[in-house]
Structure formats: C-alpha cells, structure tokens
Amino acid sequence: MLIQFKPRWNISIVNPLRKIFQNKTFLTEIKTDDILASLSGGRMFFLGFFLWSFTEVTAAQQGPPPPSPPPPPLLLVSFDGFRADYLKRFPMPNLKLLYSQGVLVQELTNVFITKTFPNHYSLVTGLYAESHGIVGSSMYDPDSHKYFHPSSDLDPVWWQEAEPLWITALDSGLRTATAMWPGSDVTIGNRTATHFLPYNGAVTFRQRLGNVTQWLLGNDKESGVKFVVLYWEEPDRTGHMFGPENDTAMSKALKEVDDNIGLMMSELKRIGLWGRVNVIVTSDHGMAQCSPERLIRLDDCLHPDNYTLVDVSPVAALVPRQDTEAVFNLLNDCHAHMTAYMKKSIPERLHYRNNRRIQPIILLADEGWTIVQRGDHLPQLGDHGYDNSLPSMHPFFAATGPGFRGGVEMSELKSVDIYPLMCHLLSVTPRPNNGSLEPARPLLAAQCTAGDVSLVFTLVVGVALFLLTMAFVFRWVCRCCSPDSTSFQRLQTGDDDDDDDGGGLFH
Predict the structure, then answer these.
(1) pTM above 0.85, yes or no
(2) The predicted structure's pLDDT at residue 217
(3) Quick check: is 458 catalytic?
(4) CATH placement of domain 295-379
C-alpha cells in the first residue's frame, strides 16, 4: 500500500503574510502573536524547507559566476620632483581638470631616502628601499664589490631583489610597456616589459607620449598593452638648478608640466581612450631650498683617509676604513645640523636598516643643509633625499578613469600603497609588499559583480531562515514555560473568520 504524505496547509499561515503585502501600514498592524501563532509546528518546517529549496535551486540555475571582463588599461605617469605644495602655489589648470573628474591625494608620504631611483622602484613594487635593494642613487654592494651610479644602472644584479609590476602583470597574461622609467630597460628575471624605451634624456615628452598611445591602441598584429609607465624629468631638473623657492623659474617649469598633462589628455581623447583608461599622475619626491650658507664639511670632522664615501648629500653613506666606532664618534659631534647613525641604530620608522647595501654609517642633514667633503661650493640650489616626514619631500597623487570615484580628495597616503592599488585595478595578484589597499579604497569606484549579487541573495535568505528558526524556538519556549497552556483562550472576533481549524486556541 502506497502511503502519500499530504501536509495540511492551514489558511492561518497566509493571513499575516497577506497583511504584510496588501496593507501599507502593516508594520503597525501586524502583531507578533499573530505571526508566531501562524508559524508553529509543521508550518514552520515547511516554510523553512521551501526557502532552503528555493535557495538551492536558484544557486544551481545561476551556476558559476561569469568570467570577469578584462580590466581597463592603466597608465602611470611620474613627473620627477613635483613637490606637493606646487599645486597650491602655481596654476595647473589641466592637472586640476584631471583630478576634478577623479581623485586627489594632497600629500604622499614617500620612502626614505627621498631620492629618484629608490622611490620610483617603490612605486612599482610597493616596497621600502631596504626591501627592494635600490637604497640610493649611488650605492656600493659589499658582496659583489660593485658601485652603482645612475649612468651605469643597467646591470641586472642591482634590480633583482624585487619584481616591478610591469613584470608581474605579464604572469597574468597582460601586455605591458615602459617609457624611460628608472630600471625599466633592465632585464629582471631575464624579462622586460612587452615594450620599453631605453632611457634617453633628449627624447621629448611628446615623443614618449606618442609611443605610449601606440602601445595602448595596439595594431593588427597585437592587442594593446594593459599597463604602461611614463617618466618625465621636470620639474626636478629646474628645482635642482634654481631651487623650489624661485617662483619665476618654477612657474615656467610647471607650466610646461601642465601643458604636457593637457597634451596627454587630448591625445587620449583623440584616440578614444579618455574615460576608458585609468590614469595616475604622481611623483617620486619633493624639493628643498639649499644655500651656500648651509654647508656641512666632512673634512672639518675627520681626515678622508678614515673612510670611503659612497654617497654625499643630503644622506652621506660612509664605509669606515679603520675602527667603525671611532669614526662614528668623530662624526657624531661633527655638526649641529647633521645626525650620524650607526646602521643598527637607524630609526625603525625610516625602514632603512635591513639591507647589505646600506652602509655602516649614514649621515642625515637637516632640511636645506648640504653635506660636502670640503670647500665652499654648493652643488645645487635645490635638493632632496631628506627625512621623508618633511612636507617639502612629499609628492602628490592624482587619478581619473573608470576605476576611480569622481571629485574625491584625501589628505595623505603612503606611496607604497599605490602598488596594491594598481594591482587591484589590473586584477593582478600582488607580490609581497609593504603597502596596503585599505587606505586607498575610498578612492575607488564602487564595483558590483555577479558573485556579489549571489552572495547578497544567499545572505538575505540565510537571515530569513535564522529568524524563522528563532521564532520557532521562541514559540516552543513560550509553550514549555506556560504554567497552564489550556486555561487561557483567545477571544474569537470577526477577523478570525478564516481560521476554520480552531486555531484560536493558544496551544
């Protein structure tokens, strides 16, 4: 004999739900007792089973989420030596138009030392100088006994301690390109970007930009690149020559920079990529005003036979030839505007201690002071490399494109946080780094994927099941705790006409 189970659906479970959907003031009219009474016993089981089954069927119909579309291209542009407060001191109409449509970070806290090579490598690796190994613009490696200078930077051995984003992105199937970014024409792990321009200071910004736009567009033989970096020497060059406080010289240099930004925007519009490519405009460091009246002479402190000088100013790096402690003691009392550090005593906040290329003694000049070995000659009227906590050393960050919000400003951000931000924009898994995406999240446009919708739906149904379960438990507890559940009866009214199973009795 075949036995069929036919659940008895009572109309009382429908009445409260009918009120919810038909009555606009249901929140004030529905009584908790009505709902709890209707969700008792088997009714609760079948309603919960229905919600669970609906969730499973819906999830099965949805299947795995569709593959994400390829990310928009990302263009990273650095204008060397662009001090953050230049934005307030000089008119920059094109740059302001760019970030008015996107985002602006007023000051970036860059890495120590605040030099060109260390900070450009930090931007594309997310690492402090002690971690990526480019600890200065002039270096000495005690293991290989090699010296590094900007004019001889093509030896891959100097760059192998980290992997820049234009290499990492290749592993995600993205094509990349570099235009004269420091270190970008070096083979790193026996690889380079898909396209790169060897450094040549005589190549104009327009010529560099022309290569960038061609790489972004692609051609009949290959698709466009997804990540490209572009470097330009100004306003650093003018800042060194005249100093950042020379308003006449800096105004001219910054007008050229702003014109170049305007050219970049117009070219991207011309080729149909403006608004479809994420553009980041930033810099590596700021600039401080120097003076021949603020010189620190090392020969006044100790004889040059006592040390080998690796780098000079404003962070001098020394290798003592004799007793390191004795040399340090002489330098420690050398000048009131210079601080001497043994390598092991360099402040932790500078993240400039744990690398063999950091020399046994470093000397850090105060802002605007210059370290020389001897004489009265001031090498340049503007310099950088000082403590990275100084506002004069800070650059800025501006960005626009589909990945960024519009009209958003932040006061500060760390430059090492730009790397995880760029990895997020490119959907590339970042290499281990010292940055974090979290501080930069307020800059990002909201993104909603099919997976997000599925997750929200599942959470909503899960919460509903939880509430139903809690209602059932509450109902059960009330029944168990009642001293005499049969001695109290609910009065029947005209509203209970549909309760044709005697459900008016509270049992």
Answers:
(1) no
(2) 97
(3) no
(4) 3.30.1360.180
